[in-house]
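1st attempt posting a full record on here, be nice pls
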Amino acid sequence: MTVPTGRRERKKAATRQKIADAALRLFLEHGYDAVGIRDVATEADVAVTTLFSHFASKEALVFEQDEDFEQRLTRAVTDRTPHEPLIPALRREIQALVRHCTADSAAPIWRMIDASPTLRKYEESMRLRHAESLATAIAADPDLSVTPTASRAIARFVIDAYSLAREAADPQAAVGEIFQMIEAAWAVTCPSANSTGTARPQSGLDPARA
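the predicted structure (as tokens):
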């Protein structure tokens, strides 16, 4: 999670976390459908308007790290060192996210999500949004030189890797298995890329013109 630096930002982040913690506590104790927005605001000791200034919907209260996860995925692309391989960088980030979301403390939350059609639908739309953000970052990387369609396909594979691994008996082994397939897809998507996922200039061509 990104740590805010200024006093105002820290206070805002603390309020947001207090609301999210209150919501999760109520949802797990009473059931997601039985708890209303006003219940959460009362539990967190904030106004309803304050709650909505931090969270756009009731569903968003459950996925309070949504924005942070999305930023981590895009930074795995944009913050790579020059010519650092793409696919291993994405694999490391997915492995970290899977560790976070398969911790013992996360199990009751996922049971609640899986039991709610509303939350499952929101989680699906969230994954699609993350995939689009990741695809945009990949397509914008001048070192990769892949089409928008190829970028979207690889991004979808990466996001699906997270979802499939989270549900697997051995999540980390599943990440490794799935990323072997993503590596193969990347090699087809970007034939000029080497086996580690970085685009390389073709023999005899000026890199600036490749």
